[in-house]
Each structure stands twice: as structure tokens, then as C-alpha cells.
Specification:
single chain, about 1200 residues, alpha/beta, seven-stranded parallel beta sheet, about 10% strand
Length: about 1200
């Protein structure tokens, strides 16, 4: 043994007699101790190494563990070469069961599967293959259900409720989601039955008696208790001034009493809690108070925040208990039908797998449970199999689920030989159905090994860290003792969970934990608005540039890191890692920023497979081999680097054959002698010939060879990566056919389904230059360590997408459906959904907190935390009232990002003065233990908006070059030459009525039109939907809404204000308008138009055209006098409406401008160029003259003639 065990580690090695749970903190050497315990029993007890069952959660981890055991065995055998027992183990170690849980299950099923009529030669489906088979099976099940559909039955109600009146794609998603999540239960069918019974509400008289009501009442009670404490604190602060106390103390006292009353009522039941609301907030007194009282401002802020939070809480208690129970009873038929559908699907899926002789991963676990666990406990077979193993050792136990736990327990001789090791603070795989509460329940109930009786389960904590410097460990301890609790994080971070330093480290300069707060708020209002338009991208790129600059500084200064031999050496790029929650979306920014600093980098599984150019080109070629009459695929293939058609060539082909699909245009071009078209069609014909007789795998390789795809893309930048993606596409084809599927159309459909499901498919990463800075997700970093860690992206908003699913699922609370008012097609949450959403949100935040723990414990020598603040000091000021040590769980629950969690305790540190100064706030000093000082910096973001200035550029000198072979006149002429059509280059190729004087709907025709003097990306942005709901529509959006009504309204049903209102309601109902747009339209304004002579003329016309889009070529000089002779531009626009009369065409354009009097005529003149453009287009297209042009201003209910 090459290392000295600590007291705790030695206890792990020596302890026997019952289930042993080892809570091994990060870097505590759990793998070494596991190996030592196993070999100690081999040596001291004479056991064979293959008498141990060792389970871990990945094949790579299993292989590494086996190699560690082999290495240690070899060392011991070298020390005792005469030991025959050890020599025997060096052979048996390769027979030992060191594997994943799925490999164990597969072995048991191949041996004993005949007891379940399972063929021992079954094949295991991979995840994508299983997903395809499930989708096909569910489609068949639904088709059979639709054939027997009867009005009023449960399934009919389910379709209406879960599909919300649309197609059944959402229902398919729900069934697959429920079926997948329920697999974490040992008996999924029994769980479904239990949950179905819960919605019967047998014996339930009040909402608070349900599991969902209890959870919401407990949560509301915790909120009330927290704010009662805050109001009590506010009352104490009132003593800062007698007058202020007289103003505010009575109001605060009433609020405090109301909060306490509500907290008590919440323990009695739902209706009692409802009666205790709203919480009173009497108006404070108005006597004048001296200015500048800091405590007075704190009191006002606390009261205002409490009021907002309690108003939000009261919204959840609007409904009475009886109404909530009625909602649950109303959705019971849909839930019953849903579970019945899930059971039908499971049965059909199992039958299809049996027919094919295949199993999926969940089958391995559930069929093993069926063999090993009976109604009364472990089966006879479980007893027989358990005799094989002297001990069952489970690594990473925090990531287990109930099914796997049932297997371990059944094989463990009633728990007498179970050795479980893990760290629940590193449980970060809940999305893979891991259940950290299994570990937590044992951790809380098992006594310490020092107090456990013989045969009793016991617990040992490994808390000494051998990875990181004390500064890093104390930094982690500071964060988590102030953030993690049972209420927020599912466990308390007590001295038992602290990280304690192990070995001594050589001294280095500035090893302190560094926190950099980046001020990305912008220097002025104009800059801020520009940043808001750039939004998230700008923030991510600026943070990436800061990270790159910090890394460059560390490398340039030769920051010392451990050399593994007790000394130090200068850091290299490979010593540094950038950890991100989700790198894929921001990887291009970090790649760019590192390249700007000349720093090599590498990332694992970087790009999106389906978004890559090479895969898109290959798929386009496959699609036209299957059917060449697909315009998008055909044009993609022609424009690709393989065939290289230019946009002008394609335009000419279309102009030469304006009718028919684009394949017909290509054929027509070939007939006219176009050589590229002819060559392309010949190659396509060769590829299509015999394609039906080839497998997709063979066809792909034939396509690669014929079109030289591998060569074309291999010669581009990142060529190895591109070729790896093309190879992965052939591997997907091979898997598809191995699963028994055939046909090119089926393969393309399979890929489309993978894309729609959002499957991330990544090829093995060929690496960049090697030895560079690594960019990793926190999940992928688990189990690794790095000398320097930069933890970035902490300002990313917490992901609450799971709470937005059509139906929510929780392993204990069950399902959370919405209720649908079928008559109005309005969905609203049930009591169950609200409770499940709340619990899922808490569990999500607990998992994010554990991810933070994993991230900060990866660092060995230096930890740098980066928090980007788009609000700058304002963000600090908003956090300051809740800052402290420890931070209240309710304050943490209200945060929107992990970065806010980090800042709340940090703001109370003495070193955080730069942050407090930036926010112009004071935070009371904390008496909590702080540990070593942090290096806390406030970083202005101005320099991060631009790429760094290259030092090479600064130092570059100018050299004089003497040209040879050219006379002075020739040289002067060459140097002063100007492109003769330079002015034409500045003229856009397209022009829209919007650029003359237009409206929002004309932008449809101008989506891709570059506008003179406008930088790309500076277009007018639509107000987000949530802002529309809260603040209403902007004037421009109201104009769009009115134009949409005029486009879709039935003119024959618009003769009165009431009829117009009904038409608007219809358009909202049929989703032509959003509800916000419907509210913004004034029916009286529209009715006034239809009642006018012009309106009656419009309604009576038989030739009326609405929203008429046009595109015509016009001389460029008509709009740009400097344009060259013969230059043309494409004029586009959308005419509101026009109609024909005997005299000619009447053009009507609707305006929502709010102008009156003389200003109305002036505004109308501004629109003349637009109307002239409309007239020009209509005359050219129809061949008839425009005799009349009218602008109708809705604000004034009048028209203005413009002829």
C-alpha cells in the first residue's frame, strides 16, 4: 500500500457486520479506499477477488476500477512473490464481476431468463433504436384507439384535454414521458394504479387533506414564517427615529400579526388559510421624517418586498377547497384514460420487443427485479445468487434509483454484506431518474459506525480532501454552509460534511478563491439599448473575453501549479479548464475569445450533429435520391460545396422555367445545354439507379465515393471533425438496419424523429491542437480535477422548462395535469399540478446547488468564479437586502441564477467592498466563520465589448517596398484605379414600400432586404409575449393587430360594432390573433370604416383583394439618382386592399397614426411615395390604371384622397 490511511479511511477498510454507507466527500479518496477494503478482505480473510460484486455506473469507471485493483494486486505480489493466494487473484481479477448495473442484470437474465420465458440470446436496443420502436408502437396503439373512439368515453375526454384541441403530438409526448419516468419504480404498473386511486379522492373532504394540498400549505407556511421574521426585523429597525417609528410601527405590527395568523391557519387546512388572506398592509403614517436614514430605507424596502410576495402568495389561494377538489375530480377521467393508455402502450411495446427478441435498458432492470423480488421480499433465486458474493460494493450510490436499489437489497443477504459509497452532494443525475433521497434517507437514519451495534447498518464520513489547497476547500465550505440546508438543498452542510485539507501544499502567490463580478451594464443609455438588442449573445461573448484575458494573464505571469512531486511549475493551457453549465450554446463565443488571445483550446462533443453543414448536405443528397422533386433539398445540394451552383445560376434556372418544381427547372436547363445541370442529373441518375436494392449504409458510402463528400469536407477547416460527423451518419444507418428496419424513406424519417426529439448526437472529438484549455460541462467534469478552474456562466437563468411540460411527473407526488375548459379551450393548473411544479422547482434548485458543489471542488490550486451582471451595480443593490451568512432559504428560492446564490453570502465578506461600493449599498458585517480571504474584484466591462488589440499589430513596422518592372505612370494609374461601378455597389438589390414610408406588415416582404444606413440586426424588435401580457402592446403592435383584423375579418359580418366585436372574438378563438391583439382592437373604429361610403364601396366590390403582395423590377435611378444606366432593383410591398371599377383601380391603405387637424394632411403627404409605389406595381401587374388612392386614418374615422 503506497499511502497512509486516515482514521476514517481505516475504519472503512476494517468495519464489518452490516450495511456500511460511506459518505465520501469530493477528493477524499473513495476509490482508493474501496480497492483497499476489497484487497484487505482478500488478504486477511482468504477470499477470492471474484467473490465480490462491484457495481459502478459507467463502463469506463468499471474499467478504471479493475485496472486500479490489478495495479494494487501487482504491487502487493511484488512485495510478497511467494504468496500463492495473491498469485491466484491476479488471474481471477479478470473474472471478477466489476461492471455496470445493466451488465449485471444482463448476465442474470441470460442465466435465469428462462424462468420468465425469455430467450437467452436477446439483443439490447440502444436508446435511439428503442425510441423509434416506441414511437411506432404508440402510433399503432393510438390508431386502434381512434377506431373505437366513442363520444363521451374516457379516451375521448383524454384526447380533448391533453391535446388541447389540436393534433395528438402532445398526447404522444405525454405518454412517452410518463412511461419513461415511471421506469424508476420497481413496479410501474402498481404505481400507476396507486396514482389513479389518488384522484378518486376517497375520504377527502378538504384540499389540505390531499398530498398536494399539504405540500402547498407547508410551503405557504414557510414563506409566512420567513416574512414574519423579516417584519420583526423591520420593527426593530424602526427605532432609528421616533417619528418614523410612529409612522411605520403600527402598520408593521398589523402585518406581522397577519403573517402569524396565516401561518397558524395554514396548519389547520386550506379554507382556514384562505380566510386568513389577504395579509394586511395598512398605510403608514405621513409625518415628515429626517432625510438620509439608512434603516428607514431598509424598512420600506422590506415592507414593499413582503407585500409583493404576499400578494403573489394570495393568488394561489383564490379558489376554495371545494372548487379545487372539483377540478381534481374533473380531470380524473382523463388521468384514468392516460394511465390506461400508458398500460396499453407498455403491453404492445413489450409484445413487439418479444417478437423481435430484444430488450431495452429498463427491461434489464425490471425483469431482474421480477426474478429477485417477490411479494414477501427476496425470492429463492435471489438467495441462491446472493451466495455467490462475499460483499456487494456499489460505487456512486447517490446516483441509484428505486429499481436498482431493490436489486442490490435482494442480493445482499438482508443487507448484511452491502458496502455503499458515494456523495449525495455530488448527485447531479436526477434527469436520468437518479433519486438522491435514497442515499439521504440512509444517511439520516444510519448511526455513526462508532455507535452502531453488531449487525446494525452504519455510516462513515470521509471528509479529508487530498485534491485541493486549503483556500479552495475553505472557499467551498464558506459557500455551502451558507447556502445548503434541508429546506434549500435537501440536506444541511454541517461540520460532518465540511471539506478538511489533507496533504500539505507548497506555497504559491495568491491562491485565494477569486470572484470577478463583470459590470456589463453599458456606459450610457444608447449603449445599453444596443446591448439589450444583442441580449444574451453580447453577455456571453463578453464573459468569454474576460475568461480568455484572465487565462492569458495566468499563463503570461507563469502562475505556479503543483507538479505532482511536491513542487511547483508554471501553468500550461492544459492545466486550465473552463466549466459551464451547458457549453454547447456558448462554445462559439469561448472559442472566439480564446482565439483572439492566441490560446489553444479543446472541447468534448462540441457541435450539433444535425446543424453541421456536412450532415445537412449528405441528408439533402439522400432526400433527392429518394425523391428529387423536393425543392429545398435539391437547392441545398446544388448550392453545397459538392456542386457549387451560385445563387445567380439558380435564379437563371428558375427564370428559364418559371412553372413546375425546381427539378423540372434543372432538367430544362440541361435540355438547353447547361453543362453543370447535365452533369448533376447524370450523377443523380447514377445514384438513384439501384438505390432501392442497397441498404442505407451501402447507399451512403456509394454517395460519399461518387460525390467525394469525405474529400470535400475533409479539406475544410476542422476537416477531421467534419469527416467524423459523416462517418457517424453511416453508423446511424448501420444501427437503423441492425434494428430490422429497411428503406431510405424510413431512415430519413428516423433521422427526422431524432431531430424533433432534440437528440444530441456527437461524434468522437478529434481534438483541436491538443494540450489546450479545456471547455467542459460541469456534468462531464465530475470525477476529474484541474489545477486551475474558471467557473463561468453563473448568471445563466435557472432552467424551469420542466415545470412547463403539458403534464408534470414526480416519483412521489404523481402526475400534475392541467384542467381544460373544453368549451372555451382554456387550460388552467389543478391543485396537483401546482404542488408537483413547486416540488420539482425545489428539487431542480437543489440539483443546481449540487452542480455548483461539483464545479468548485474540481480545482486543485486556483478557483476563479465569474459572475456577469448585465445590470451592473443595480444587480448588487437588488441582492443586498437578502445578503448575509447564512442566507435565508426563502431568499435563495427567489433567485433567478446560481450567480445570485454565490453573491448573497459573498456580499457579507469584508473583501466584497468593491461590490458593495458598485451597488452603493451597505451590508451588515457577519459574525460567521469566513475562512481565508477571497480575492473579490469589480471588473468594468467596457473593454470586453471589443476584441483585444494584438500586440503584433502594435509592434508592426512599415517597410518600404521598391516595385520593379513598372514605370511611374503605370504605378500611379494602378494605385489610383477606382472600380467604375462603386456607387452601384452601395445600392440594395431590393427595395420595399417600408423604406419609402410603410407599416409593419410590409416587413414580411422585406425580411432579408438590407436597408441603406442600417446595420444588420438593428431592426425593430417585437415586444416579448410576456411583456405584451403585462404591459400591453406597443403602438406599432396595435397597428399590426388592426391590419390583421382587416386582413381576416369577414366583411359581410361587419356592418355594426357588435358584429365587428364578434368577428374579433372569432379571430382570437381561431388563433389568427393573440388575446392581447384582440383586446387592442377597438371595434368602434372598424365599424365606423364599414359604415362610411368608402367602407360600403369596399364591401360591395366583387373584385376586392386584400393583403396583396407584389414584387416587380424597377429602374434603380427612380429611387437612387446616382445609380448607373440600366441598373434595376426589386420593388416589393403589401397592398392593404384594392378593388376595380369601370374607371380603374382604387387603392386603399389603412393607417393607425394618431394625428388630427392640419397634421393629418401633412402625415398623408409623407405616405404619398408609398401609395405611388403601390399604384406603379398594380398598374404593371394588372395592366389597368389606378384612378383613385385613399388613406383611411382610423384615429379620425376619415379618409384622405391622394390623387
Amino acid at each position: 500500500m503506497g499511502f497512509q490511511l486516515t482514521k476514517q479511511q481505516q475504519a472503512v477498510v476494517d468495519n464489518r457486520g452490516g450495511t456500511l454507507l460511506v459518505s465520501a466527500a469530493a477528493g477524499s479518496g473513495k476509490t482508493r479506499v474501496l480497492v483497499e477494503r476489497l484487497l484487505d478482505r482478500v488478504e486477511r480473510e482468504g477470499l477470492n477477488v471474484d467473490a465480490f460484486l462491484v457495481i459502478t455506473y459507467t463502463k469506463a469507471a468499471a474499467a478504471e476500477l479493475r485496472s486500479r485493483i490489478v495495479e494494487e494486486l501487482s504491487a502487493r505480489l511484488a512485495a510478497h512473490p511467494e504468496d500463492g493466494h495473491l498469485r491466484r487473484q491476479s488471474t481471477l481479477v479478470y473474472k471478477a464481476q466489476i461492471s455496470t448495473v445493466h451488465a449485471l442484470c444482463a448476465q442474470i437474465l441470460r442465466e435465469q431468463g428462462h424462468l420468465l420465458d425469455l430467450h437467452p440470446d436477446f439483443r439490447l436496443l440502444d436508446e435511439s433504436e428503442a425510441g423509434l420502436l416506441m414511437l411506432d408502437t404508440l402510433t399503432e396503439v393510438l390508431e386502434r384507439r381512434y377506431e373505437t373512439l366513442e363520444e363521451g368515453d374516457d379516451f375521448s375526454f383524454l384526447v380533448d384535454t391533453m391535446s388541447a384541441g389540436r393534433d395528438d403530438s402532445r398526447l404522444v409526448q405525454i405518454v412517452l414521458d410518463i412511461r419513461g419516468r415511471v421506469q424508476s419504480h420497481p413496479r410501474p404498473a402498481a404505481w400507476l394504479e396507486e396514482q389513479e386511486r389518488a384522484f378518486l379522492l376517497d375520504g377527502v373532504a378538504e384540499a389540505g387533506e390531499t398530498v398536494w394540498g399539504r405540500l402547498l400549505l407547508e410551503d405557504a407556511g414557510r414563506q409566512a414564517d420567513y416574512w414574519a421574521g423579516q417584519m420583526a426585523r423591520a420593527l426593530e429597525l424602526c427605532a432609528c427615529d421616533d417619528v418614523f417609528e410612529g409612522n411605520y410601527a403600527p402598520s408593521l405590527s398589523a402585518t406581522l400579526e397577519g403573517l402569524r395568523r396565516f401561518s397558524q391557519a395554514a396548519r389547520q387546512g386550506w379554507d382556514a388559510a384562505r380566510e386568513a388572506l389577504p395579509i394586511p398592509f395598512p398605510t403608514p403614517g405621513r409625518k415628515k421624517v429626517p432625510a438620509g436614514l439608512a434603516d428607514a430605507e431598509r424598512v420600506k424596502d422590506l415592507r414593499n418586498r413582503c407585500k409583493k410576495r404576499m400578494e403573489k402568495l394570495a393568488e394561489g389561494f383564490v379558489d376554495e377547497s371545494a372548487d379545487l377538489l372539483d377540478d381534481l375530480r374533473a380531470v380524473h377521467p382523463a388521468v384514468r384514460a392516460l394511465f390506461a393508455l400508458v398500460r396499453d402502450f407498455e403491453g404492445a411495446y413489450a409484445a413487439e420487443k418479444s417478437r423481435r427478441g430484444v430488450l431495452d435498458f429498463s427491461d434489464l432492470e425490471h425483469l431482474t427485479v421480477e426474478l429477485l423480488v417477490g411479494p414477501e421480499g427476496p425470492t429463492e433465486l435471489a438467495g441462491q445468487l446472493s451466495g455467490r458474493y462475499a460483499e456487494i460494493m456499489v460505487d456512486e450510490y447517490q446516483d441509484t434509483n428505486e429499481v436498482q436499489n431493490a436489486i442490490f437489497s435482494a442480493l445482499s443477504r438482508e443487507g448484511k454484506n452491502l458496502f455503499l459509497v458515494g456523495d449525495v452532494k455530488q448527485s447531479i443525475y436526477r434527469f436520468r431518474l437518479a433519486d438522491p433521497t435514497i442515499f439521504l434517507e440512509k444517511y439520516r437514519t444510519f448511526p455513526s459506525y462508532e455507535h452502531a451495534r453488531e449487525g446494525e447498518s452504519r455510516r462513515i464520513n470521509l471528509s479529508k480532501n487530498f485534491r485541493s489547497r486549503p483556500e479552495v476547500l475553505e472557499g467551498a465550505n464558506f459557500l455551502f454552509r451558507n447556502l445548503m440546508s434541508v429546506e434549500f438543498g435537501e440536506m444541511d452542510y454541517t461540520p460532518e460534511e465540511f471539506l478538511y485539507p489533507g496533504p500539505d501544499f507548497p506555497e504559491i502567490p495568491n491562491p485565494a478563491v477569486e470572484l470577478d463580478a463583470l459590470d456589463l451594464s453599458g456606459e450610457d443609455e444608447e449603449e445599453r439599448l444596443a446591448e439589450e438588442r444583442a441580449a444574451r449573445v453580447s453577455r456571453d461573448l463578453q464573459e468569454a473575453r474576460f475568461a480568455a484575458a484572465r487565462i492569458r494573464a495566468l499563463l503570461d505571469e507563469g502562475f505556479p501549479v503543483g507538479d505532482g512531486k511536491g513542487g511547483v511549475r508554471p501553468a500550461e493551457p492544459s492545466d486550465i479548464v473552463i466549466l459551464l453549465r451547458s457549453p454547447n450554446t456558448v462554445l462559439p463565443h469561448y472559442a472566439r475569445a480564446l482565439a483572439e488571445r492566441g490560446i489553444s483550446w479543446e472541447a468534448d462533443g462540441g457541435g450539433d450533429f444535425f446543424a453541421s453543414t456536412e450532415v445537412n448536405v449528405a441528408l439533402a443528397l439522400l432526400q433527392i435520391v429518394d425523391n428529387p422533386r423536393q425543392d429545398v433539398s435539391l437547392i441545398s445540394a446544388l448550392r453545397s460545396p459538392v456542386y457549387g451552383f451560385t445563387a445567380d445560376q439558380l435564379a437563371l434556372l428558375r427564370a428559364g422555367c418559371p412553372d413546375g418544381d425546381f427539378y423540372q427547372a434543372v432538367c430544362s436547363g440541361a435540355e438547353r445545354g447547361d453543362e453543370p445541370c447535365r452533369a448533376f442529373l447524370e450523377e443523380l441518375e447514377e445514384l438513384r439507379f439501384g438505390a432501392a436494392d442497397q441498404s442505407c449504409y451501402q447507399l451512403l458510402w456509394r454517395l460519399y465515393d461518387r460525390s467525394n463528400l469525405m474529400g470535400v469536407f475533409g479539406s475544410m477547416s476542422n476537416g477531421e471533425e467534419r469527416q467524423a460527423n459523416l462517418l457517424l451518419l453511416t453508423e446511424l444507418a448501420r444501427r437503423f438496419e441492425k434494428a430490422g428496419h429497411r428503406g431510405l424513406y424510413g431512415f430519413l424519417s428516423y433521422l427526422t424523429r431524432l431531430q424533433e426529439k432534440g437528440e444530441r448526437i456527437t461524434a468522437p472529438d478529434p481534438g483541436r491542437e491538443g494540450g489546450g484549455v479545456r471547455i467542459l460541462s460541469i456534468h462531464r467534469s465530475k470525477g476529474l480535477e484541474f489545477p486551475v478552474v474558471l467557473l463561468c456562466g453563473l448568471s445563466r437563468r435557472l432552467n424551469r422548462e420542466d415545470m412547463q411540460r403539458p403534464i408534470l411527473f414526480h416519483p412521489r407526488l404523481g402526475v400534475g395535469p392541467k384542467r381544460l375548459d373544453v368549451g372555451r379551450m382554456v387550460e388552467y393548473p389543478t391543485l396537483a399540478r401546482r404542488a408537483v411544479a413547486r416540488q420539482l422547482e425545489y428539487e431542480m434548485m437543489a440539483e443546481e446547488l449540487r452542480l455548483l458543489y461539483v464545479a468548485v471542488t474540481r480545482a486543485k490550486d486556483k478557483l476563479i468564479l465569474s459572475v456577469a451582471l448585465t445590470g451592473g451595480g443595480r444587480d448588487i443593490a437588488r441582492l443586498a437586502p437578502d445578503a448575509g451568512c447564512p442566507v435565508e432559504p426563502q431568499a435563495l428560492a427567489a433567485c433567478q441564477s446560481v450567480g445570485q446564490w454565490v453573491l448573497l453570502p459573498v456580499l457579507a465578506r469584508p473583501e466584497a467592498a468593491p461590490l458593495r461600493d458598485a451597488g452603493a449599498v451597505e451590508v451588515p458585517p457577519t459574525l460567521a466563520t469566513l475562512g481565508p480571504a477571497w480575492d473579490i474584484r469589480w471588473i468594468p466591462g467596457g473593454a470586453l465589448k471589443r476584441p483585444p488589440v494584438s500586440s503584433q499589430t502594435e509592434e508592426r513596422t512599415v517597410r518600404t517596398v521598391r516595385p520593379t518592372g513598372m514605370g511611374e505612370g503605370e504605378l500611379r494609374e494602378a494605385l489610383t484605379w477606382r472600380y467604375p461601378w462603386a456607387r452601384d455597389v452601395e445600392i440594395p438589390s431590393k427595395l420595399t414600400a417600408t423604406q419609402l414610408k410603410g407599416r409593419e406588415l410590409d416587413r414580411e416582404a422585406a425580411e432579408h432586404t438590407p436597408q441603406a444606413g442600417t446595420r444588420r440586426g438593428e431592426g425593430v424588435l417585437r415586444r416579448p409575449r410576456f411583456a405584451e401580457e403585462e404591459f400591453g402592446l406597443t403602438p406599432a403592435q396595435k397597428g399590426v393587430a388592426l391590419h390583421l383584423v382587416m386582413q381576416y375579418i369577414d366583411f359581410s359580418r361587419a356592418s355594426s360594432e357588435a358584429q365587428v366585436a364578434r368577428e374579433v372574438e372569432r379571430l382570437v378563438r381561431e388563433e389568427y390573433l393573440t388575446p392581447e391583439q384582440g383586446k387592442a382592437v377597438d371595434p368602434a373604429r372598424l365599424a365606423a370604416f364599414f359604415a362610411s361610403p368608402l367602407g360600403r364601396e369596399v364591401c360591395s366590390s366583387a373584385t376586392l383583394r386584400r393583403e396583396f403582395k407584389f414584387s416587380i423590377l424597377v429602374p434603380a435611378r427612380d429611387y437612387w439618382p446616382q445609380a448607373g444606366e440600366g441598373e434595376e432593383v426589386l420593388l416589393q410591398g403589401v397592398v392593404d386592399c384594392f378593388f376595380e371599377t369601370a374607371e380603374g383601380i382604387t387603392v386603399v391603405d389603412f393607417k393607425t397614426d394618431r394625428v388630427a387637424g392640419e397634421a393629418l394632411r401633412q402625415r398623408a403627404e409623407e405616405y404619398r411615395p408609398q401609395l405611388e409605389a403601390y399604384s406603379r406595381a398594380l398598374e404593371e401587374i394588372t395592366g389597368r390604371p389606378v384612378c383613385r388612392r385613399v388613406l383611411w386614418f382610423f384615429s379620425e374615422n376619415r379618409g384622405v384622397e391622394m390623387m
